[in-house]
Amino acid sequence: MKCTSCDKLSFYIICKTCQKQLLVPNFYKKELEKDFFVYSFYDYKDLEDLIQSKYHFYGDRVFNILAKLSFTKFASNFEFTHPILAIPIDDHTRHDFSQTAILAKHLKSTFIKPVFNTLKASNIVKYAGKNLEFRQKNQRKFIYSGETNCDVILVDDVITTGSTILEAKKLLKKQGVNVLFAITLCCFLS
């Protein structure tokens, strides 16, 4: 197959050279509310084509590579006083796989336990390219069926306005879940 970045022949959808040269993660921090932060590894503009792979059959391979380079590395360096849960936001499989489930899977470590199919949106509206006003008028209306009285990390693929993460955090708080922070693959920096 060909590397999606450089078109050279490769055993991987993104060749090892491109992984090392083009996909080195950074660490971005954005405060959504007082003392509540979202951490991201890439600027959306640098990953736009790769993020769009979530709409294609090969997207799971792309997301596994990106998650291994960023989420796995984060998890291996993360320590806490007790194990916490990683909850992917709306880890449905509408496109043959769930990008948020893939990302959460790569957080598995001594201190982080991913849990799946617990935070689902009951309103299946597409937010891609929509502004904050649209997102606020068309909330996801999450339903939570997981553990309570626990500490969690929220996992999503992209943060634009932060409305999805804040809506999920609000619901989880009502359910007795303490959201420590959120982590996303990429964010909009501009």
From TrEMBL:
<protein>
    <submittedName>
        <fullName>DNA utilization protein GntX</fullName>
    </submittedName>
</protein>
<comment type="similarity">
    <text>Belongs to the ComF/GntX family.</text>
</comment>
<dbReference type="InterPro" id="IPR000836">
    <property type="entry name" value="PRTase_dom"/>
</dbReference>
<dbReference type="InterPro" id="IPR051910">
    <property type="entry name" value="ComF/GntX_DNA_util-trans"/>
</dbReference>
<dbReference type="InterPro" id="IPR029057">
    <property type="entry name" value="PRTase-like"/>
</dbReference>
<dbReference type="Pfam" id="PF00156">
    <property type="entry name" value="Pribosyltran"/>
</dbReference>
<feature type="domain" description="Phosphoribosyltransferase">
    <location>
        <begin position="151"/>
        <end position="185"/>
    </location>
</feature>
